[in-house]
Amino acid sequence: MNKYLTLFLLLNVLLACTNETDQKLEEDLTETEDISVERQKKAQNVFQTVPSPMETASIFHQAGANYNAEVLNPIQNVGNYLTSYQRAINFGVYGADLSYVNIFDQSQDAMFYMNCVKTLADDLGITSAFDAETMERLEENINNRDSLMRLTNDAFWDADAYLKENGQDNLSALIVVGGWIEGLYIGAKTLNRDNPEEELMRKIAEQKFSLASLMDLLATYEDEDVKKIALRLENLQSLYAKVEESEEKVVVDNSNKVATIEGGPALTYGKETIFEIVDEIDKIRHEVIQ
Questions:
Q1: Is the pTM of this model over 0.85?
Q2: What are phi and psi of 223, to 5 degrees?
Q3: Domain for residue 175, yes or no?
Q4: pLDDT tens-digit profile of 57-82?
Q5: Is residue 94 within 8 Å of residue 88, measured between CB atoms?
Q6: For residues 178 and 89, is the Cβ–Cβ distance under 8 A?
Q7: What is the dihedral of CA 122, 123, 125, 128, to 10 degrees?
Q8: How far apart are CA 273 and CA 205, in angstroms?
Q9: What's the domain range around 277?
C-alpha cells in the first residue's frame, strides 16, 4: 500500500478516535453536570425536610423527652473509627449528641462531645471547622446554651462547605446520615414502651418524610460507602411505608362541634409500627457506632 495512503488512513483513524474521545468527554461532562444539578436539588430538599441534629434534639425535647446520657455514643468509641466512612458517619453521630447535650444544658458533657467532634474533624481533614479559635469560643460559651448551639451549628456548616468545595460531598452526605440516625435513635430511646407518649410517636412517624428525602439524595451517589448505608436504610424505609398519610388533616373541636382542616399531611399508624421502627433504628445505630 502506498505509504502516503497508509498515513492518510492512519490520520483518519486517529482523528475519528479523537472525535469519539472528545464526544465521550463532552457526554461525560454533561452527565456529571446533570448529576451535580440533580444532587443539588436533592440536597436542597434534604435541608428543607431533614431536621439538623440541633432541630432533632429540640423536637424531642419539646415533645417531652428527658435527658439520658446513656443513650449517647460513648466518648471512648472515638478512637475506634479508622476509615473515612466510620469517621464521617460518626462525626454526624457525635454532632447530634453534642446538640442533644446542648439542648439540655449539660455543659460538662458538652465539653466531652466537642472534643470527640474535634478529633474526627481532624481525622477527616476538616480541622478549619473546629480550629483552635473555634474551640476557644465554644469553651468560653460552654454555659450559654444559645451561643453554644449557634457556634456549633456554624462549625458544622463550615465543615459541610469545606467537604463540598474539595470534592468530598460523599463524606458530607454520610455526616448528614449519621446525624439523622442518631437524632432518631435518641428520640426512639426516650419512648415509653408500656405507655408511649402520643407526641413522641408522632414525631418519630414524621421522620418518614425526612428519610424519603435522605434516600433520594443518597441515590445520586456512586460511592460504595454511601451505597452501603443507603442499602442498610431500605428496611427502615419499608417499615415507614406502614405509616399512612392523607392530603389533609381534619381537627375536630368536640366542645364546639366544629371541624377544621389544617394544612400538611395527616399520619395514621399503629403503636406496633412505631415500635418496629424503633427496633430497626436501634439495630442500625448499633452497627454504625461499632
A1: no
A2: -60, 130
A3: yes
A4: 777 677 667 788 999 999 999 999 99
A5: no
A6: yes
A7: -10
A8: 9
A9: 50-289
